[in-house]
Amino acid sequence: MSSNIIRFVFENKIHEIKNLDPNETILNFIRLRLKKTGTKEGCAEGGCGACTVVIGELKKNNIVYKAINSCIAFTTSLEGKQLLVVEDLMQKDGSLHPVQSAMVNFHGSQCGFCTPGFVMSLFSMYKNNTSYDKKTIEESISGNLCRCTGYRPIIDAAKSLNNKKPDQFKINEKKTINLLKKIRPENIYINNKNKKYFAPRTVIELKKIIKKNPNLKFLSGGTDLALIVTKQKKDIENIIYLNSIDELNYIKENNKYIEIGATTPLRKFELFIKKYYPDFNTILKRYGSIQIRNIATIAGNIATASPIGDSLPLLLSLDASICIENFNSKTILSLKDFFISYRKTKLKKGQFISSIRIPIYKKNIFKAYKISKRIDDDISSVCASFNVIIVNKRIKNIKIAYGGMAPIPKRAIHCEKILLNSDFSEEVILKAQISLKTDFQPINDMRASKNYRMEIAKNLLFKCFTEIKNNKSIRLNY
Ligand SMILES: Cc1cc2nc3c(=O)[nH]c(=O)nc-3n(C[C@H](O)[C@H](O)[C@H](O)COP(=O)(O)OP(=O)(O)OC[C@H]3O[C@@H](n4cnc5c(N)ncnc54)[C@H](O)[C@@H]3O)c2cc1C
Ligand code: FES
Ligand code: FES
Fold first, then answer.
1. Looking at domain 372-470, which CATH architecture does it have?
2. N or C, where is the chain less crowded by C-beta within 10 Å?
3. Whole-model pTM?
């Protein structure tokens, strides 16, 4: 069974839209069609948070609230969810939601342009936590920019939310859950003025679609892809949406490896990976913002193959592999063999990444560093990752990978050769630093000069050595 109707809960009713334009963003839908203009457009590329809305998803009879950037999410992705915009927060008697009252009481708004976005990010924080410390608050608003109030009054407003009372959404929760349950999962197929959109619910259905339409563009979180529409002002004509497939939203582990399904949001993975590789979690905490990580996937980060994709050096140094499938085959490929040249990969038409496997090392030391101009919501100038096993002061295993140093994310093979089976000493590290020039010839661009990149790469190697030698992290700000 398939349908061309997108159904979602909005204003306590099930909203239905037939044959929607698959390229219409939630932001345009809200502002232009619903005429709700509280939600603002700032950058149209996921970077300022002015367009933040909250999505409610039914998980095990509970509603999970996620802040997202409506400017880069397509309206079709609302299927089966609840949409909450800033206008929904005011209660029937006209009184403000506790988050809105706190912003008023603590003078959290001046010109007001960023305010609806901050309110929605704080609303999501309010719904998903029971108390709000500095870390939780800063993380919740890391994807929101304010250019006139400044952040202190907003943080004070957020702190005042501790000891909250149930809000109107808690009181109405059962009603909303019943409405969400009424939307039965269906495969979606839309054909709108020659734009095709498929949202299969199962891998079997996905494969049937791929077999007939190998030229479709895969869409996961859309945090890269949607920018073709919002920034390049082009259409994406044929889309196959993967994030509707719950079967691919999983994290499994056995003795040897962790397997992450392709539609698993980064936010879920970030919380999981901490117990195995804490530095992976640290890097992901600085990956975009909560709005981005709530929907973006690792599979999308790999397939888009940016030389500065943050998960890539980490996965390379951990020697991760990926499962690639099409309608009738499945292969497992080491990630180090996947990237061909700038943004070119081994993926052929009709092939998709179904999962990612990360080996579990028992006695290794894993370290990762991201150098960017800002701590939050910024892409790396250089990202480095080190996976080392040291036995009796000798380096018994070493895998090093860098992002931002070459047209593709890449292992530092020459540097590794010098280090492998050598003493773990300053002298060897200094020699290995020099060999990075054989591994990489970085470029100048707006993020960093080639000389800066090379110096950073060398220094990060030395920093890794110093941290291991002194058994101490040397980190600023995080
Ligand atoms: C504001 C902002 C901040 C960002 N910050 C960072 C950052 O700090 N670090 C970073 O690395 N990136 C960052 N990004 C980039 C982006 O968020 C990541 O690359 C993200 O992981 C992409 O995942 P996605 O699920 O959104 O992919 P999508 O946008 O849905 O897809 C990206 C590409 O991968 C393909 N694709 C997706 N899934 C699959 C699959 N399963 N199989 C085959 N092909 C597939 C799509 O066809 C498309 O070509 C940022 C983006 C924005 C807008
Ligand atoms: S408008 Fe800036 S993040 Fe959406
Ligand atoms: S209040 Fe003006 S940008 Fe934040």
1. 2-Layer Sandwich (3.30)
2. N
3. 0.96
